[in-house]
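Query structure, 295 tokens:
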């Protein structure tokens, strides 16, 4: 989750909003041309690809809404901010994709069993080329922005654009083979697309579920925190280490034990300094809360 404050909040939200709008418009355009050509040529692979573009329109719209809510700063009712909204909307996207995958799989399998022929058209090839160009541009733009803003919804969209490039290449091969009356690959590609949508939905659902269920911090991030703690010889031991996901980052809390002869001011100065260093050096940490005990 990107932690938003002041001008940075407004700036990042504007960028994410623009990326979402590009995604909605680009995918809606692709859905229309894929669907039209797919129906005219009876290509299940192209129709499946059109349905995939429809899910991409929905994903981009959910990214817009989710990021809008997640960009709100913390308030009295939400002390840790609204970062988990990104994962709630990611879960909604995954559920819609599950349903889409089942429908696409059913249509493609039916076409294979009935040996439905594909009417070859140069427009199938043209649509594939337009899709590849559009998706590649969307991927490059969204991927760079997701890294800059550290937004999980944009990252998911970028992966989806990349995956679509691979799917479209397979679709293009199916189109070219249909010219030589080789139709079996069309249904196979349609099924492949449905399985890919299902797999992507499963990954998004799993990641969203883990965060919403407060899955523990990964060992790599935890080790970064403890390496910083080890730099303080005044700290004798650490107890009750807890980590709570806050969107893409974590809030951590733990107890440090220091020399009981230190003054209250001195012991808390150590804790304050440690909090600042952890939050400044470990990118995955949103907030650290340290309790001090004498030993």
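Result returned for the query:
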């Amino acid at each position: 989750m990107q932690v938003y404050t002041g001008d940075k909040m407004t700036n990042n939200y504007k960028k994410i909003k623009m990326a979402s709008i590009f995604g909605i418009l680009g995918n809606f355009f692709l859905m229309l041309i894929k669907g039209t050509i797919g129906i005219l040529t009876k290509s299940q692979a192209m129709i499946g690809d059109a349905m995939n573009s429809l899910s991409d329109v929905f994903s981009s719209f959910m990214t817009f809404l989710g990021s809008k809510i997640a960009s709100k700063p913390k308030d009295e009712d939400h002390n840790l901010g609204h970062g988990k909204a990104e994962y709630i909307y990611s879960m909604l996207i995954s559920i819609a994709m599950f349903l889409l995958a089942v429908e696409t799989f059913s249509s493609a399998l039916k076409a294979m069993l009935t040996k439905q022929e594909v009417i070859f058209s140069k427009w199938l090839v043209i649509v594939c080329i337009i899709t590849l160009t559009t998706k590649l541009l969307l991927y490059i733009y969204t991927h760079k922005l997701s890294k800059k803003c550290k937004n999980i919804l944009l990252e998911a969209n970028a992966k989806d654009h990349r995956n679509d490039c691979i799917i479209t290449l397979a679709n293009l091969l199916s189109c070219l083979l249909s010219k030589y009356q080789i139709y079996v690959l069309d249904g196979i590609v349609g099924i492949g697309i449905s399985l890919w949508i299902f797999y992507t939905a499963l990954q998004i659902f799993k990641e969203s579920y883990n965060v919403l269920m407060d899955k523990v911090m990964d060992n790599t991030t935890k080790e970064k925190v403890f390496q910083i703690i080890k730099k303080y010889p005044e700290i004798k031991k650490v107890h009750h280490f807890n980590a709570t996901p806050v969107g893409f980052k974590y809030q951590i809390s733990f107890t440090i034990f220091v020399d009981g002869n230190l003054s209250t001011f001195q012991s808390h100065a150590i804790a304050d300094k440690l909090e600042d260093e952890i939050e400044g050096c470990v990118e995955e940490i949103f907030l650290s809360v340290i309790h001090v005990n004498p030993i």
